[in-house]
Structure formats: structure tokens, C-alpha cells
Design brief:
Structural class: alpha+beta
Number of helices: 3
CATH architecture of the largest domain: 2-Layer Sandwich
Radius of gyration: 17 Å
Number of domains: 2
Largest sheet: 3 strands, antiparallel
Number of strands: 6
Length: 139
């Protein structure tokens, strides 16, 4: 796996690309650092990585369980320490599912997706981040 980060302008705006894709991701520092709101911040990318890893695994598991997913989203909310470096101390995932999905199967799938199959979860948890989740089904 390989990525490249390239500085875009004289501020703190960068563009990231991965060797596996032609997609570009815009990354930028906070306004206090000179950012202009043209990209996501690195710690937001961490939350995005956790939520996307969980999403991919969850969809796979629910499909194998023959559940019909009409819509899905995950909200990731992280709490950071006040000390430098400002790492996450806890993250909560709110998993929103719509469709013909059995509650018990959704709960089992989420448990597997978050705690067994998501590599990002394991890296963060190994660093002491408390990761929790909840499921909202057809709400």
C-alpha cells in the first residue's frame, strides 16, 4: 500500500492520492494554521477511515445475511485529549440502517464489522481509544 501527499499552494493545503486509485483527497490544516476550508483535517480523516472501514464490512456481512439495505450512514464522533498530541480518547459510531433488516442480524453484523473485521478499529483500540457504537434501524 502506498500513498502520496503533495502540497497544493503556499498555505497548508495538500492533495493525497493512493496507488490503488485515481481519486484525489483534499487535506488542509485549521484556519489557525492558515487553512481556507478547502480540505478535511487529518483527524477528520481518521474518523472517516474508521467509519468507512466499518461501513464496507457491515454491508458485506448484511448482504451475506440476505438483508436488504435501502440506505445506510454512519456518524463518527470523537473526543480528543487536551494534551499535545491531541489524540482521540473515545469515538462513538452511530450506525443508521434502513431497509428490510432484522434487528438481531443488524446487531450481530455491527459487532463483527466494528470489533472483528475493521482494521482501523483495531489500530485505534490498540492505542487506547475507547470505541463504541449504536444502531438506529429504520428511524
Amino acid at each position: 500500500m502506498k500513498i502520496e501527499i503533495t502540497r497544493i499552494n503556499d498555505a497548508v493545503h495538500f492533495e493525497a492520492s493512493a496507488s490503488s486509485s485515481k481519486v484525489k483527497v483534499q487535506i488542509e490544516g485549521s484556519p489557525a494554521m492558515g487553512g481556507h476550508g478547502q480540505g478535511v483535517r487529518p483527524m477528520e480523516l481518521v474518523l472517516m477511515a474508521l467509519a468507512s472501514c466499518t461501513s464496507l464490512d457491515l454491508v458485506q456481512i448484511l448482504r451475506k445475511q440476505r438483508q436488504i439495505i435501502e440506505d445506510m450512514s454512519i456518524i463518527a464522533e470523537g473526543v480528543r485529549t487536551d494534551k499535545i498530541p491531541q489524540v482521540f480518547t473515545s469515538i462513538h459510531l452511530t450506525i443508521k440502517l434502513k431497509g428490510d433488516i432484522d434487528q438481531t442480524k443488524a446487531e450481530r453484523a455491527a459487532e463483527l464489522a466494528v470489533k472483528k473485521y475493521c482494521s482501523v478499529h483495531d489500530m485505534l483500540a490498540a492505542g487506547g481509544v475507547d470505541i463504541t457504537y449504536s444502531i438506529l434501524l429504520n428511524e
